[in-house]
């Protein structure tokens, strides 16, 4: 079966869309890597989260919460939806399922996923139940 080749949206277009929707954000491009920093507030009652998105052209983007620190409710709780608790690296989607691809705009697809993830985190931190879906997976994130 032949694979359908998807277009890769260039970093200039990605940067432009991020800046147009989030004018107070910081976007830099260096050596085919886009870095976006912004404060997101998933709901009017939510905290503001400082987010860092790193996207190497043609690869899966990585998203980190810079502040505040995401915490477990209890020490024994599991952070199933983080790739790394130390790095505060969010698991937004299952990379092997290719739910995100290089033909998608970060601002239109990934940023809403980040906000949704943060909202589910806030609900989980109160109730102990993760309502954001997802599947159990290993830490092989390539």
UniProtKB/TrEMBL annotation:
Domain Type II CBASS E2 protein: 15-137
Protein name: Type II CBASS E2 protein domain-containing protein
Protein source organism: Marinifilum caeruleilacunae
